[in-house]
Amino acid sequence: MPMFDVYPLYDVTPVSGKGIHVYDDKGMEYLDLYGGHAVISIGHAHPNYVEAVTKQVSELGFYSNAIQNPLQQQLANKIEALSGCKDYQLFLCNSGAEANENALKLASFKTGKKRVVAFTNGFHGRTSAAVAATDNKNIIAPINAQQAVTILPLNDIQGVKTELEKGDVCALIVEFIQGVGGLDQGSKDFFEQVFALCKLNNTMFIADEVQSGYGRSGKFFAFQHYNVTPDIVSIAKGMGNGFPIGGVLIHPDIEAKYGMLGTTFGGNHLACAAGLAVLNTIEEENLMDNVNAMSDYFISKANTISEIKNIKGRGLMLGLEFDFEVGDLRKDLIYNHHIFTGGAANKKLLRILPPLNIEKQHINQFFEALETAIKKVEQTAN
Ligand SMILES: Cc1ncc(COP(=O)(O)O)c(C=O)c1O
Asked: Which fold has domain 14-46+285-381?
C-alpha cells in the first residue's frame, strides 16, 4: 500500500539523533536547526527524556481518562511553575490542531457565539475550526468553509474593533510570532489593544502558543512579552520533544462540565512522562537563559551577512529573509553542508528552529556553511 502522497520529501533518512544532531541511514551527521519543525525542544535522545519515557512505558504506557492519573496533575503543576501562569486549568490532548480546536470550541461554549477573528498568514492546524481560522484557502475543504471566520491583517486595530463590536465573535485567535506564515509579529500596542477589545466585547482571547511556547521565544510564552492575559492558551510542539502531546490552558472564568471536552489518548501516562521530562530539563539546564543568549549570538552573526535583508522573530524562533527565494539555498545546506533549516509561506525566508540547548559552536558551523551556500546559489543564478 503506498503512502498517501501529501508531503514533498527531502531525500534524507534520519535513523538516530543525539542533541542538536541527527544521523542518516549511511551514518552521515546533520546539524538540526529545524528541530523537526520546532518540536525538538531539549535535543534528540536527551538522557532525562529517554530514561523517563523508557521507565514509564515499562510500567504503564496508557490507560484511559476514566481513572486517576496523577502524572497529569504533576504536569499541570510544572507548567504553572515554569510559565508563571497562575490559576489556569489544563486540558490535555494530542496535537496543535486539536489544542486549537478545543480552544475555539471552549470559546464558543463560554460565549454562546460562533464567529472567529483570525489573522492574515496565520496557521492554526488542519482540523475543522482550526483550519477555517488558518489563512490558506488550499487546505480548507468545503466542509470546513461553513465555519464563520473573519481574517484581518495584523495591526489592523480598527478592523478588529469593527468586527468585535458586531457582537457575534466568540474568539480571536493569534500567534504572537507567526510560524508557518513567516515570523511576522503584531506591534505591542496592537496586541494590548486587541486584548482590551476582547474583554470589552465578551470575546475569548486565544494565544496560539503551539510553536512559540515552551521557552522558544525567550520567555515561556511569547504572549508574556506583552501586557496581556489570554483567556485560553494552546500548546503542543515543544511540549513532548517529539512525543505527540498538546494542551489547552484555560482561564478559571471558563467552567468545566463533565463531557464538555474529551479524548482517548490525551494526557496518557507516556505523554505525561515525556512532558514532565521536557519541563524538568528546561528547568535544570536553564534552557530559557540559553535561548536568550544563543538568540543574541545568532542575530549578531546574521547581522554581518549582507545578503540577509531582514531578521525576523524572537528567541530561537527566527527567520532570515533574503531578496531571493531560499529553496535552492535550503537544498544546498542539506545536501552539501548537512544542515536542516525550515521554509515558510514567505518563500524568501529561511526558518531557524533549533533545539533550545544549541551552542555557539553549532551556530558558527551554520554561518560558515551559509556563507558558502549563499555564494554558490548566487553564482548559479548569474
Ligand atoms: C502556530 C501553530 N498552531 C497550530 C499548529 C498545528 O499543530 P499540529 O501540526 O500539531 O496539529 C501548528 C503547526 O505547525 C502551528 O505552527
From this structure: Aspartate Aminotransferase, domain 1 (3.90.1150)
